Structures are given as structure tokens and as C-alpha cells.
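Re: calcium ion structure - here you go.
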Amino acid sequence: MRVLLVEDDKDLQRLLKQALSDAGYVVDAAADGEEGHFLGDTEPYDVVILDLGLPKMDGVRVLEQWRKAGRKMPVLILTARDRWSDKVAGFDAGADDYLAKPFYTEELLARVRALLRRAAGLATSEIEIGALRIDTRSSRVTFDGNPVKLTSLEYRLLAYLAHHRGRVVSRTELVEHLYDQDFDRDSNTIEVFVGRLRKKLDPNLIQTVRGLGYSLESPDALRAESVAKA
Ligand code: CA
């Protein structure tokens, strides 16, 4: 999952970037409204954390511009302003959640998880697909009840597919959501990671859809589907 963090307070930006990276997210950071707006307008993000008081372009305006352009990613507003009128302006501009400074990092992370969950139509922080179980709070994965050790990239790949289960996700989309903007992106590496996940979990868990990409669905569901089609 890829997060855009727009925050001009350098210390806070560094702290949050670290906390988000530790939680397994890929993070791009911007320190002013213009840069933040540009990134949110041109790169695909799963969630955006947006400060309201920003140099060059106010956070509310940034958000309004994104929404006007049809950008639908979940946005959490982060600001020192706790006046009710600012919250209203933020929500009316298209914000999905709001957190007033000062706050606990844990609360921010929980809200980010909730936004991702809602976007994926999930009800809880645990994702269960057949024998696969992903705890998005601890980033722990079990298969058939056994803990599975994954590298951070393998986890990010699996979590992304799980949040978009039942749909074919292209390699390009995966590359865009699993690496930050500075990474030398090579969509061939995705195939390598998919191969490793199949080896560590189940060879049939991640389906390759020729020419289109990958899809994560439990073999049971696939079987039920083919039975339904027959
Ligand atoms: Ca600020």
C-alpha cells in the first residue's frame, strides 16, 4: 500500500514517515501544498495524509482540486486547527477522516488501516481467504494456522492483492503501489515475488491471468465459481 504524506513540519514528517514505513507502507512525502497536489494528481495512492496549513497551497484547496479532477483516494486530514469550522471545510472538500494535532501515532495508523479497509469493503483488520489469514495490524500472516515469514515486499504484495481480492490486478498497478516514486521500477521483479509467495503459501493461491495480471482468491471460491459456471 502506498501512502502520500503532505506535511510541512519536518520533524513530524520524518516521524510519521518512519512510523508508516515500519508499518509496511510505501511512503512518498511532500512538504508543501503544490508538490503534494502534484503527487496526488499524478501518482496512484491508496491513502493520503494531508496537513491543512501548508506553504504554497492550502490543504483544503489541494483536496478540492483533487476531487474536482476526479481523484477518489481516501484522504485523512491532519492539522493543528481544531475549530469545528475547519473540520467542516475539510469534510466538505472531500476528506474521509480527520485527526487534530497533537495525536498518538498509533491512532493515526489505526485510522489509516480503517480507511484502507473501508476502501476495500472489509469489516475488520483481519483478512481471511481460505486457509490464509492476514492480520493487517501486526502484518502477521498465517496459512492453515501456521505462521508464515514474509519479507516486507512479499507482505506488501500479498496485502495489496488481498485488499483487492477477486479482481485482476495488473503488474503495472502492483509496481505503482508497492514501490515509492524514487524506486527503479521493474515489473519483472513482481513475478519473482509472486513465485516466492506461491512457494511459501499455496501454489494456487495467486492466479496468473494471462496478459492481464494476478488475482488472489481462495481455491475454494474458484472451485465454487467453476461449479456455478458449469
Ligand atoms: Ca502545517
